[in-house]
Amino acid sequence: MTEIGGPTVPQQRKLVTAIPGPGSLERLDRKKAYVADGVGTTLPVFVVAAGGGVLVDVDGNSLIDLGSGIAVTTVGNAAPRVVARATEQLAAFTHTCFMVTPYDGYVDVAAKLAELTPGDHAKKSALFNSGAEAVENAVKIARVATGRDAVAVFDHAYHGRTNLTMAMTAKNMPYKNGFGPFAGEVYRAPMSYPLRDGLSGAEAAARAIDVLEKQVGAANLACVVIEPIQGEGGFVVPAPGFLPAIADWCRANGVLFVSDEIQAGFCRTGAWFAVDEESVVPDLITTAKGIAGGLPLAAVTGRAEVMDAVHAGGLGGTYGGNPVACAAALGAIEEMETGDLAGRARDIGALMRARLDALKDAHPVIAEVRGRGAMMAIELTTPGTLEPDAARTARVAAYCHSQGVVVLTCGTWGNVFRFLPPLSISDELLEEAFDVVAEAFSATA
Ligand SMILES: Cc1ncc(COP(=O)(O)O)c(C=O)c1O
């Protein structure tokens, strides 16, 4: 337990200055002077401590965190088990490079991933530093294992900012604009987006499969990479039956089904992994974010024979599976297991859905409430149409920020609020945060 962060941070919203306050404004000038402008900031308060569902800034303001650092601090910020395990590991040794001399933490995380990910077949993992790196490596593995080149992704997908993952990501601004040329052999299929296409899961899958068969050819495809609930693209939840139909088609055609659970995985949706909802068993699964409670760690986990298709030395990297990050992951996973955080995510989901449904009834600008567990969203459109309302979204977000509630937006059109609170947040704090969100809708009407 630390003095300034973790559970000692009072679980309250408290504003003592405007947001951002003078201390943050002063630091923003330094940021402007020394940090590249391309690195953006959603809410420019400089954080000095965090714990549970609260961030404390340099001016002494306490903000309610509905973003978890983009779905990372699922177990809470500076969670006790994460801090204890990482601290112990820091004092023991900080790095060897697993490819030079191995250590237990890496193997322990791989064993946990084999146990927790869907399916009871033999599984193996390789560890990396970021989600994008995991996605890149899943594609490398799929290509070697199948001897094929092509990769299928979906409309609204987000898979990262490296060269291959930029090609896989759908949205141009800000992720791709000017950064090409992009990697080849990446093909995009239509996603199931019930609000906008009105199709059943089976119909949407047939549409996507038709595109892949006609435009790529199943025999050329190494893998289909899909977010079971899309993250950055707008928390798009495919219609029931879509994922199983795509997975079945993959299996029938020797195409590997890769579930990108970097945002949706590790208890976020009320299950260990989002594909568990429909009993889909992926060939490969990519994880990051929530896996290590805030330390950088990512993984590709998959069928042992697929993972082992790659030649010795073909996978790795200097820092992949760093011992401190692995220790943090073991602490985070223990927290999830002992605290039944999947159950807590379902409870949080029920609370958020009730609040958001009421908000939708009061404000026709909200076209849809969607999501699962502690991964909920609302999409804003001009009432009675599907015309995205990004301007109102921005005004509501600005109001919430000014009142000390950290909310995140997303979506291809920038018109979606995504709510991703840490699972350690109390009901009281959540209710208070949604009081502010409700106030924001009324104040910006
Ligand atoms: C589904 C998904 N895949 C991949 C990534 C990329 O992860 P990272 O930012 O760690 O590279 C993200 C990040 O938001 C994500 O949500």
TrEMBL record:
Cofactor: pyridoxal 5'-phosphate
Any single GO BP term: gamma-aminobutyric acid metabolic process
Annotated Gene3D superfamilies: Aspartate Aminotransferase, domain 1, Type I PLP-dependent aspartate aminotransferase-like (Major domain)
EC number: 2.6.1.19, 2.6.1.22
Keyword annotations: Aminotransferase, Pyridoxal phosphate, Transferase
Record PANTHER family: AMINOTRANSFERASE CLASS III (PTHR11986), LEUCINE_METHIONINE RACEMASE (PTHR11986:SF58)
GO molecular function per UniProt: (S)-3-amino-2-methylpropionate transaminase activity; 4-aminobutyrate:2-oxoglutarate transaminase activity; identical protein binding; pyridoxal phosphate binding
Protein name: (S)-3-amino-2-methylpropionate transaminase
Classification via Pfam families: Aminotran_3 (PF00202)
Catalytic activity: 4-aminobutanoate + 2-oxoglutarate = succinate semialdehyde + L-glutamate; (S)-3-amino-2-methylpropanoate + 2-oxoglutarate = 2-methyl-3-oxopropanoate + L-glutamate
Annotated metabolic or biological route of this protein: Amino-acid degradation; 4-aminobutanoate degradation
Keyword Transferase: yes
Coiled-coil residue windows: none
Family, as annotated: Belongs to the class-III pyridoxal-phosphate-dependent aminotransferase family.
NCBIfam families in alphabetical order: GABAtrnsam, PRK06058.1
InterPro entries reported for this sequence: 4NH2But_aminotransferase_bac (IPR004632), Aminotrans_3 (IPR005814), Aminotrans_3_PPA_site (IPR049704), Class-III_PLP-dep_AT (IPR050103), PyrdxlP-dep_Trfase (IPR015424), PyrdxlP-dep_Trfase_major (IPR015421), PyrdxlP-dep_Trfase_small (IPR015422)
